[in-house]
Amino acid sequence: MNTKMKLLSLALVGLCGFAGSAMAACPAGPDTAHGGAWSAVNALGGTAVIATPGYATTECRLDSTLTGDASAFATVEDDSPTAEPSYRAAFIINADNLTTLGAIDAAYIFNANSGTGPQISLSIVGDGAGGHLVSYVVPDTNAAGGSDIGSFPLTAGENHIEIQIASPTFGIWVNNNNPSSPNATVTNVGGATAIDTAFLGLAGPTPGYITSSNGKAVGFDQFDSRRTTFIGF
How far, in Å, CA of 196 to CA of 203, rounded? Predict the structure, then answer.
């Protein structure tokens, strides 16, 4: 268990900069085939590429940009989880380029998928006042419609987001370094309790996002995934 937990972490810490270590040069691409740490790059109507500098002292980051329609995606993929009943993930996001994102304009930024049930999804959403929210959708057996939805404001610049899925509970921390006080908790998570795959980057934009923000990069960095132990920043 401990060895696997380290593999889940070390495979992805720092995305491209590996926890801020000094590298002579960033990899040519985020996937292992191009020197990066991710299992694959998936892009249709967009790009997911290495950019410099990174965030919080790392050498490089991931820039995800959409240029297509509602079916567009530009993500990196992690296949290292194996039906994980307990899963944590954290990353930095900087959405400052989305200066005209309107209220309810949105795109997915992270998905944790389970082969046995619905996925856990995070989105970037406009707040109607020039700012941004991070929104979550979690399968909830007690909620109307079968899902629990919530959102929290993001600040300008770098934002730290962390989630935990430990059957039957989901927790989310947004710029919050207190492991005992998540911003929100869902206690009746149904289905998505055996995480197999994670995707980071932009996908599934709304029509308003396409109109206002296509062609604008959103930056991601310092992704870390573990079975247990608060990641923090």
Answer: 19
CA 24, 89, 93 angle in degrees (round to 5)? 60
Q: How far apart are CA 65 and CA 27, in angstroms?
A: 19
Per residue in 79-124, pLDDT (tens digit) is 988 888 889 999 999 999 999 999 989 999 999 988 766 688 999 9
Which residue segments constitute the domains of the chain, with CATH numbers given? 2-226 (2.60.120.200)
The C-alpha atoms of residue 39 and residue 81 are separated, in whole angstroms, by: 11
User: How far is Cα 74 from Cα 59, in angstroms, rounded to an integer?
Assistant: 21
Question: Amino acid identity of 85?
Answer: P
Residue 162: CA count within 13 A, CB half-sphere: 25
- Distances in Å between the Cα of 158 and the Cα atoms of 35, 90, 97, 174, 209 are 25, 13, 12, 11, 21
